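Hi R.,

Quick one: here's the Hydroxysteroid 11-beta-dehydrogenase 1-like protein sequence you asked about.
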Amino acid sequence: MTMLMGRLAGVALQLALAALLVLFLPPYYVYRLTASFLGSVFPDSVSGKVVLITGASSGIGEHLAYEYAKRGANLALVARREASLREVADHASALGSPSVLVLPADVSKPDDCRKFMDDTVAYFGRLDHLVNNASIWQVCKFQEVEDVNYFRTLMVHSHMPFSVLHTNLGHELT
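And here's the predicted structure, written out as tokens:
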């Protein structure tokens, strides 16, 4: 008897799973087909767009620059280390970026932020995308921290490109 009940439970489970597949799989495929169709009709292209990337001399910023370059974007690359930034710019040009502007600057300094934003717009005539990737970090032992207000200053400065863009650029992003 228990063997029969076990088999019935197994069959019921298989039927339930089959019913779930019948109910949920077709809408999933309709979604995927629709998304694929819309993606081909309305492609999201950055070819010819102007992209400013802060923190572009290494790490995530460097690889973002390469991905935008492969897609044909004009790049304005910002970082403190000019030599590394020039290497990234050369590689981005080789990957297909039509134009690369190297802007050595420190995002923690408001004047530098204004300058690299203004220089980008002056060079390309516009700015389409801002990738605020620069980071400022400090390594220390918790016991050595005497004034936690210093960390707040770093956090405020990390948002500097957005405030400069909002208040000092004088035009809208396209």
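Residues 66 and 91 are 8 Å apart (CA to CA).

Cheers,
M.
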